[in-house]
Amino acid sequence: MLDNPALDVAIGLIFIYAVYSLIVTTLTELISTMLELRGNQLRRGIRRMLDDDTSIKDLSNKFLARPEIKYLGNKRAGRDKMPSYIRAKTFATTLLNVLWADNNFEGGLEDIKAKLKPRENATHKVIYNLLDEAQGDIEKFKQLSQDWFDETMERVSGWYNKWIKVITLCVGFIVALAFGLDSIDISKKLSSDKSTRLELVKAASSYSQSLQANTSLDSLETVDKIEKLSERMSNLLDETEKHSALFGEGGIEKLKTLKQWDLFQYLLGCLLTAIALSIGSPFWFDLLNKLIKLRGAGGQEDTKKKK
Asked: Model-level pTM greater than 0.70?
């Protein structure tokens, strides 16, 4: 077997990142679900499209109240939840129905356009321009509306991902503090303590195949998702408890005993850990498997040389 202390330190550290990033991912998804982050960002995007984020949410309120949209989400605590996803085709059809209902029109697009005055709101002018470009063709108007929706949803996805990154980093830092995951201190311990290093490498080798990276639960309803996430959290905490002794004393209690420079180093080490955890478990598990294979390949080479 390839006896390389630097490689073993890397494997041990990456194994810690892989396991604890699962906890961070689970907590982040749980927070996102409870805050209905996807649905709220979708609502924000639609309000941006239809009312330009103004205080007068006339068109967007009518759009969101339509049964085509309203019944896509669940009802919880006496209120209708915003769905987390809307198809572009559904958006286009609902928008057209709102325009017809809003103006009491039963005719074609030209009838709507003739009496629909471009409002001062810029986004309402966009709708007028779509009607003008469609030239009375309903299917063309729907396609133009779908293109508009798809382009906006790309930006909504960006808004959502930014929030997820912020939440993930904050959760990662809290997890690092709570479990005493100081990357600087852990690296020093693994470098100086061979028995601890080998124990962690052994654990990494055993669990690299059995532990799976995060599986998305987006398809589940909110109640089921929270239940599954809670179950996953319980299993992960049981798993991490097996290796907690490797890190020595840590956590938030450690903050009370540290002096200024040591406190700065500890917080810096936890911040480095938080950044690493925010990358996500799939990345760390993939890297971990590659390093373990490299370590095993080194052992085979040494055996062949001895022969």
From this structure: yes
